[in-house]
């Protein structure tokens, strides 16, 4: 008998499958193939279209399990927890992975608790242990300076949240087929003591954790008005503006822009740290970025140890120059 | 005799060759304006700058002595430079010539636990000394606030002070021995690992704070203390400057405890700094703050000490006393103090960081005098600094709407007014930054003429050709 | 009204330095402090108490070795009314599941409060799982990534940060909220607070006091096992370019543009 299925918790916003779900497929497909079993995407929402659900199959799922109800349109903790828990109890998947997003990081522990399942947070590596078939979950700890590999030998499902952007989204393959199951949860699972009363979109146009390019603002900017220089650079690169703790504490940028131990962890393709000295706490939030460029007037700043190229000079000269030259390069 | 009367020779190609043979070509910078430029200034704002003709990086005392002999023979000025973090223009080669870079003489030579001393070369970064000592449970207490950048050679030459001087005193208190090269190129050894020593004139302490005009150091022996194991900072809010300042002598004398640091900030200083840092500490009603540190051998002791001092502050009218006994909280209150200068730079890039020192009891009078001058010229002059030492960084800040030329016309008048007012109440020009060339005309205007004469005579006796750091302290 | 704030003692991260050659943290006999993010939770509790019309009691609950009483005293110096420490060898090695289970048992003993607050995550383990899991054990609605919370009639109004914006929710009855650092700026302890906190008692509870069996707490009961720990190196050989004067700056910027082209980033 083949082992039980590998599940991913796909996410949707406003009825559209969120991109992070496709990254989970990359992870899940690999695990399912190694275990010789089925990959199933669970997605909670309000009556998503077949076309939308099919994208999960196109990108590598064998099955989509859609829990559908108006109460599941937005992420509300109680209905999400209860529905996911009921599905797990019913179908007993071997592995369940979710994204380490606000949804994943909230729902997964709430589900793992009552199920007495092991749960590992914010993994950057997932593998199957050869002889036992256990899931090996690797995650950074202590600000990214230590990696720990964790397993759950006895309890099932083995649960983990996965750091967004830690792998590529699975590509779409035309002609893939799979099964779409829709499930209408019973009313008692949909009760909620929490009501959504208002929603305000983020101030900055692009969230830093989703951006391919992040331009980070540090103390070197001297005052809030100067952040405009970083915005201009981010704009020509279609990127987002991040910030060190210092820059957020001084009110130059809002908290959602903060990168580091007490802010967000990002790993974009390109991270340009400007006037950021590179404290241990900041490095923890960005050192896994693919390409790091640092601009700092202090040639001894620790950030240079993590950068591919470091410019030792005045950011007020360098930033406008870089912005102009990139704009020109894109034109030609 | 003064430096203006000496004539100096430009460095000839023969001399360059001689120095290059002596030190190795890679330890000479010559004829390269781009690489010489960083040696043209220190951290004193808007001061005169000039490139040296040559930068030399000696590797040991013998090389240095030979270099000085050449310079003395050829009448070439020699200016020693540590990290260039000075605030008086002391390391600026006003007459060109040679600037000495101590980057190669940066070794810790010995930690002597039996005698509680450390022996270092002058190019050692000051913070490295305490890092090296930490495993031994010892520390060097004379360090200034800029310890992460400055070098020990510069600290000794300027007799640097800092945040902890209230309890531990300034650099000179810890200097037990100096090996140096005299202006005529002799190797001289002063002092040693001795706690007391009256064998002849105290030339050792003459060299401390001599701003490089009497010779250059090659080796320094420092006294060490046991490292305090616990430390707590307090931020005390007062309604008025007078109340805050009046509390200081009480703290120093009536509680039987000597705090490690007593820092003062007037409203203008802390309000600007807090705004810059976006610090939301409730201090709208405060007119002045004291930042007090106590340290000691264990937590219980320190707890007792801060209780006593905190109570004294409350009794003296403090409206609130915050206690920071974690690194995060200590950092949070110290950064208010440390960011004052930076915050004003954002307000206006031109400011003149002054360093007046008055008897502790005269701080209110000093503050009043500074306010009067501030009103007279329409220039903000925040006052902050080391209240426990009577040492205040009164810092005239250029109004952003002024032109730089106008500022440069008015600033000398402001400073002259300020120094005269400070001298009147028994104070002096500089507590810890030194005279350099930035403040020499003010020193000449307010100092005792007999003192000026004695200094000149000493200089002439030791440096007949006037080659050592000419143009500093006096003309 | 009663509020329980969960706090954890963590090594003081500011006391750590990076070893430049190995890229690892050097912890220099780091003293323990309240997890920095928990301070924001404490501040939220204090603000709620100050705004409340009714009497409000704030209890800080922590699990750890006996030395963790220090962080509870720190909390009480800020204005927290009581401190409770769960301390027992039996708890040692608990993973997030066991920790949440044990804390939930303690909350049941102490009586279910109107609100449980915790920091978004601890700066050492960085899982952020204990709070939500505990909410599930206690059947409380869990509001995570909270940037603001206030009391309303019959419950709470909270704003939470999602990936693309902020959502305001209202909760009927008791809740558990995990707060972000932007929820409130922690106050500093005062001299008076420090002195009051020294005189207060801290309740210490064991596994037996809680009625938690060894099958449910500690290393052996933990579903997860750490298999190995290793140190990654993110250090790079940096191509450092001087860019102090305009000519250098231009050259350096050209080099960056060139690299971005090579990597297909523009």
Structure write-up:
- The complex is a heterotrimer of chains A (about 325), B (about 475) and C (about 270).
- Chain A has eight helices and 18 strands.
- By secondary structure, chain A is an alpha/beta fold.
- Chain A is elongated, with a radius of gyration of 22 Å.
- The N and C termini of chain A lie far apart (about 60 Å).
- In chain A, about 55% of the residues are buried.
- Chain B has four domains: about 5-105 and about 455-460, Uridine Diphospho-n-acetylenolpyruvylglucosamine Reductase, domain 2 (2-Layer Sandwich), CATH 3.30.43.10; about 110-225, 2-Layer Sandwich (Uridine Diphospho-n-acetylenolpyruvylglucosamine Reductase, domain 3), CATH 3.30.465.10; about 230-330, 2-Layer Sandwich (Alpha-Beta Plaits); about 340-435, Alpha-Beta Plaits, CATH 3.30.70.2740.
- In chain B, about 35% of the residues lie in helices and about 20% in strands.
- Chain B has 16 helices and 18 strands.
- Chain B has helices at about 15-25, 35, 60-75, 125-135, 150-160, 165-170, 205, 240-255, 265-275, 300-315, 325-340, 340-345, 365-375, 405-425, 440-445, 450-460, and strands at about 30, 55, 80, 100, 110, 115-120, 140, 175-180, 185-190, 215-225, 225, 230-240, 260-265, 290-295, 320-325, 355, 385, 390-395.
- Chain B is globular and about 70 Å long.
- The mean pLDDT of chain B is about 95.
- In chain C, strand 6 (about 55-65), helix 2 (about 70-80) and strand 7 (about 80-85) form a beta-alpha-beta unit.
- Chain C has helices at about 35-50, 70-80, 95-110, 130-135, 190-200, 205-210, 245-260; strands at about 1-5, 10, 15-20, 25, 30-35, 55-65, 80-85, 115-120, 140-150, 155-160, 165-170, 175-180, 200-205, 225-230, 240-245.
- Chain C has seven helices and 15 strands.
- Chain C is α/β, with parallel strands linked by helices and about 270 residues long.
- Chains A and C meet through helix 3, helix 4, strand 7, strand 9 and strand 10 of A and strand 3, helix 3, helix 4, strand 9 and strand 10 of C.
- Strand 10 (about 145-150) of chain A pairs antiparallel with strand 14 of chain C.
